[in-house]
Amino acid sequence: MCPEVVRVPRTRLFTPLTAELAQALAGYPALLRQALALRPGMERELPRRIRDLSLSLTADREGGPRPGYLSDPRGLAAYAWYFLPWNLIRLSHLLPGLDLDLPEDGLVCDLGAGPLTLIQALWLSRPDLRRKRLRFLCVDRSRRALDVGARLFAGLAGFDPTTEDAPWRVKLVRGEYWQGLAQGASLVAMINVANEMAGAGREPLAERMERLAGQLADSLAPGGRLLLVEPGTRLGWRCLEGLRRAFVEMGLGLLAPCPHDRPCPLAESRARAWCHFTTPPDDAPAWLAKLSDRAGLGKERLSLSFLLARAGEVAAVPDAARVVSGAFALSDVPGSAVYACAASGLLVLCAPDRRPPRSGDLLSVTVPQGAPADAKTGAPRVMLPVTPGAAPATPPPSRPAERVGKPPRPERPAPPARPHGRPTASRPPRPGQASGSDRSRSGPPRSKPGSGRTRPRKG
Asked: How confident is the model over 280-300, as pLDDT tens digits?
């Protein structure tokens, strides 16, 4: 019997926020005030505390963020007012386009759930799932964060998810991430957790991610999904790239963003590149944009890295290519260009009409024989067809191509600071994009209790 096969979709990665979702986010401060019960003085201090938490998270990113800040009322308040809603927006752009395939009465294991960011985003952005009865097992080190998240979700959905008769039944567990692993899961999710594990302990990152991949895969039901979302930083991508290699070795299929299961072209490129995707923050609610500016953490773009895998085979589509950069100019070609990842390797897609595909778009691209090689990366250059009705662009001024994975430069004298840069004395980073909805964690155990996995593990 042939194994079940899932075909790679050809679609735009990020979807716009619906009017219903935008309205819910606009009214989110009322839910926050009710769930957190802040004193007036604490709310006035929010911009300063948000800035302090942001600096702390970024400064500690390589060595793992300091533990316990979500168990502190002030730290949790700062996180819930700033990081949580920005993460809701990121996930709400991403989740509608993903093939999650959650069945009736399916089990979702949310590891490092924090204030239930994933469940809130699913309810907001996937109304098709609201009609299903689903079970959620949510684990985090901070019980306070889990309880706040349950109150926020109840305000959004109109029912208490912790009751037995709720359509979405949520079980909250205070503990380490592996305590949220259960057999037969339809979806196992980790949102902004792997990068926080990377700096804990002395074990090499590749070995840590390989062991983590085995634990996650052991919990899946046949056809179940693994969803991992990380900040759009080099560290976040390195964690996902290690997990990706392990998933491929185990025989799991890659649904997104990878259009193939061959070695990652960005990992082997001579350009310093990493896979992440960006979208503008234009549809953020006014209150959040204002609070971000008051904290000195206004945003020019939102970014993330992610991986969606499946316990089963995924059919290869030879001509599929995923756009992995913003638009940039080439000195010797008119119009603009983007980088794309394909089974054949890295591609440079040139748009002569200055209308290149967006970050994350999945295209059908045929590389012609004899395609010229890009001088910087050695990747083939492929000319995209001109959009009907668009006039060809005039050649741009000479300018070097941007690095893969780097957002496009705005038309002004100086480019903006990197949103995930380390803090400096002159200008702080913008870690709202690099921070997670989850906390620091110790490294995973050498084996998950009760695991039936027999595959040998390093370390």
From this structure: 999 999 999 999 999 999 999
